[in-house]
């Protein structure tokens, strides 16, 4: 099942490819859907890709391919895979029922952007109150969140690349095996898998070129848990 915005984006990409032979730019997609930032487009494309409707073509800038369209549509896109309350009254020509109250979420939310994970500084020390990062509400759900720019390739095998933006849920606890922002010895901040065993805490990379580091429990403080990754193209 697709959301209304995913449906609209898939329709726009398909029509753009058929009429112009190339994928639309992120700015064109943002303007077509009436979004305020490109972070929402990144999220929608990821959702369409995960559901098998599109794929990114490697080694080509802004290259997308439409793999399939929802079935039984009068214009080639969508009906049976959509929940009725998602598409009812939302497309041109359809009659809309006046809502009793406005329950819509805002298009985007601004969360603190801390910049790159900085070795030698606690997260609180690198916060810049003037910088924010825009996300969609469906990205984060409830709770406090912040954004960090990933620096390095130690988590590359988990699909986290240098330059990605990590959306972090602010918490001081996390389950075993979670990817966390950890503060070591009140000095060094790092993004790693959390592994606990007996009286030790292991911070495990997702890259065979790096070693797992093991500490006593009093040396590591959790400063957040990874919620999602935003990648710029």
- What is the N-to-C order of secondary-structure elements (H for helix, E for strand)? HHHEEHEHEHEEEEEEE
Structural class by secondary-structure content: alpha+beta
Tell me roughly what share of residues is in helical segments: 10-25%
> Major sheet, described briefly?
9 strands, mixed
Lateral arrangement of strands in the main beta sheet: 4-3-5-6-11-7-8-9-10
**Beta fraction:** 25-35%
Number of helices, counting only DSSP H or I runs of 4 residues or more:
6
Overall, the morphology is elongated
How would you describe what is shown here?
With 233 residues, the chain is an alpha+beta fold. Helix content is 21%, strand content 27%. A nine-stranded mixed β-sheet has the order 4-3-5-6-11-7-8-9-10. A two-stranded antiparallel ribbon has the order 1-2. About 12% of the residues have low confidence. The longest helix has 17 residues. Helix 1 crosses helix 3. It contains six helices and eleven strands.
Overview in brief:
With 233 residues, this protein is an alpha+beta fold.
What's the arrangement of secondary structure elements?
Elements: H1 4-20, H2 26-33, H3 39-50, E1 54-56, E2 64-66, H4 84-87, E3 109-116, H5 123-126, E4 132-135, H6 137-140, E5 145-149, E6 165-169, E7 179-184, E8 188-197, E9 200-204, E10 213-215, E11 220-230
Parallel strand pairs: 3-5
Antiparallel strand pairs: 1-2, 3-4, 5-6, 6-11, 7-8, 7-11, 8-9, 9-10
Helix pairs in contact: 1-3
